[in-house]
Amino acid sequence: MDILRRKSSKAIVPVSTLSISTIPSTFANRNNADISDDFPAPVLPTIPICIGFGNIRIALGNNSGEAADRDPRQWQRQDVSDSHAASSSDITTFDGDNDSGSVYHCDCIDCMMSNEEESTIPNVIYDANTGKSYMKGRFFGKGGFAKCYEITESKSHHVFAGKIVPKSLMAKSNQREKMTQEIAIHQSLSHRHIVGFHGFFDDSNNIYIILELCRKRSMMELHKRRKALSECETRYFMKQILEGVFYLHQHRIIHRDLKLGNLFLNDDLQVKIGDFGLATRLEHDGERKKTVCGTPNYIAPEVLTKIGHSYEADIWSIGCIMYTLLVGKPPFETSSLKETYSRIKQVQYKTPQHIGKPAMNMVANMLQLNPSKRPSVVKLMKDTFFTSGYLPTSLPLSCLTMAPRLDMLESHCNRKPLGEMNLNGYTEQDILSCRVPSSPSRKTKPNSEIAEPQRVNLDIRKMLQTLKEQIGSVLRTKPARESVSSADELTDPAAQPVIWISKWVDYSDKYGFGYQLSDDSVGVMYNDGTRLIMMANGYNIHYINREGDELYYTVKEYPASLEKKMKLMNFFLKYMNEHLMKAGGSIAVKQSDSLSRIPYIHQWFRTQTAVVMQLTNGTVQINFLDHAKIIMCPLMTAVTYIDHDKNFKTYRFQTIQENGCCKGLADNLLYAYEKIKLMLQNSQAR
């Protein structure tokens, strides 16, 4: 057995020996996207790896979880607000008996924000063990001690996520042991629903962990943009989550921090379970762990009460995840951590009437106080919820920001009675009130006194009012600064918009307003108030009439009444292809395109200095004549600023309140505030 030894101290901490497999120099890669799940884990000769911390060397070993079960009193105490922001952040380990509203943090990699000076991260990262070098790309995000960048392997040009941890922040032995355990567990895993682990190494300043890149972020961002999902979407995600957790439990691993923020999504919207900082491996059947760890909204009662926990704690967390997907908020969430803990211990949560019975029964089975009564992952995978309605094999990327097409879901879920579906935070009757027809030839009669476009107008106006209040709070802090840090830590790439307007052309004097969205779909807002959208595949067409009905066609099949508008669409498309858009090959038609709904322009206007546009997902975009742009999202509470030099950065409004921003962004936010006020006044007048 190797040992971890500090030269200046007599303390000795045992750490087992570990060898890791080298990663092959080439992987098949499609368009620099994620490494394909079709490739098995490599079986190659192994090389022992050590990581050095100054005078300290760690030989990474097959740590089975002993580091994670250290005395909770070693954790640092930090007060947090009793809000959803606190419970949904990276507060991941705490003392469950603490009723003061404080949280006890462990010192694992992603659990605690550090004010330490950041270490230097080179633009070219070199792995001395394999001889590979990686080019550091765009900043992808941060969590506690670690920063994440897109990194590209120089020879193969394969793109990965590089998780980078400064050694200066690994001074304490329990911090090092936490990292040892995280790497040891994660590197042993290989499954299509687990974030791929592709190696690790170090240099004099940092530790580098090479991971699969999940470009579509996590399900937390999906939750913030969408709130509640449909039951069909929930089936899709739950199936993959359960498959990933089944693999973990097969290998005696308890994740212990399953939550939306640790469920990542790749380009195909496939779930990838990540962040094994709190995971532990059981030595034998029947072993119970005693560490109080997890995230408040997802933590099991037996973890809080310290009676010992095992795989069933993960089942509880999955129940909380499923409830959150269906309802739009966690089951035990309150404004107070103390009250949240109390509700967890009493299993006190509400059962919304609009959620289907099979779905809520499955949730109830997982959220049982007695861990032994909770079903295993195997039983959950056979639950009637998965056979009670449509289970998609894929979902369109538009689901990240918009509910899928109701007509297609109805055609697959025709056995389900009204009221059992939940789309974009509303019941099925709410959605039907928006008069989304079930087919181009048949309109669905509204089931509510409030019909489209009034319903949509009310929702969009509410989001516009929220955005005005958010910007107003920022402006009251007088955010403009002469000198503002450009550090990556102030940005939040996870809050970047999913869809924005990349090009536009104004022919409103004759025909209307044409635009291209960032996903390469093209839309026209005609002067008669109707709208036509051609998806990026160049095949599917969405038509929105003056009453707000959404009608779905293809370029090969549409009514004669749309002939003129289709010709105008092609005119706009040709103009933008020749003058504005990049020329490129068409995007292949996917099966999931039949479910896709994308946001469209709800309103727009021009001033002497800018073009102001609002999308139906609540995003407001302003393109200034000096080529600066701001894209504001009330759901993500963030603004994306594109300056004159085309630098693209996204900031949370709270970050700007706390740290200020450049004068250019501050001026643009003030302009946006005035125009949004005007938009609200005009909508009220109508």
Q: Name the strands of the widest sheet in spatial order.
A: 9-10-11-12-14-13
Terminal-residue CA separation: 77 Å
Q: What is the name of the CATH topology of the largest domain?
A: Arylsulfatase, C-terminal domain
Helix content: 25-40%
The amount of beta strand, in percent, is 15-25%
Annotation field: number of helices:
15
Instruction: Supply the CATH superfamily name of the largest domain.
Output: POLO box domain
Q: Give the CATH architecture of the largest domain.
A: 2-Layer Sandwich
Number of strands: 34
Architecture blueprint of SSEs:
Layout: E1 3-5, E2 12-14, E3 19-21, E4 46-48, E5 50-53, E6 56-59, E7 76-79, H1 84-87, E8 102-105, E9 124-127, E10 132-143, E11 146-153, E12 159-166, H2 173-186, E13 197-202, E14 206-211, H3 219-226, H4 231-250, E15 253-254, E16 263-265, E17 271-273, E18 280-281, H5 301-304, H6 311-327, H7 337-346, H8 357-366, H9 377-381, H10 406-412, E19 422-423, E20 426-427, H11 428-433, H12 454-475, E21 480-481, E22 501-507, E23 512-517, E24 522-526, E25 531-534, E26 540-544, E27 550-554, H13 563-579, E28 601-606, E29 610-615, E30 620-624, E31 629-633, E32 638-642, E33 648-652, H14 653-659, E34 661-662, H15 663-685
Parallel strand pairs: 21-34
Antiparallel strand pairs: 1-2, 3-4, 5-6, 7-8, 9-10, 10-11, 11-12, 12-14, 13-14, 15-18, 16-17, 19-20, 22-23, 23-24, 24-25, 25-26, 26-27, 28-29, 29-30, 30-31, 31-32, 32-33
Helix pairs in contact: 4-6, 6-8, 12-14, 12-15
Domain POLO box: 500-578, 600-681
Subcellular location: Cytoplasm, Cytoskeleton, Microtubule organizing center, Centrosome; Nucleus
GO molecular function, one term: protein serine/threonine kinase activity
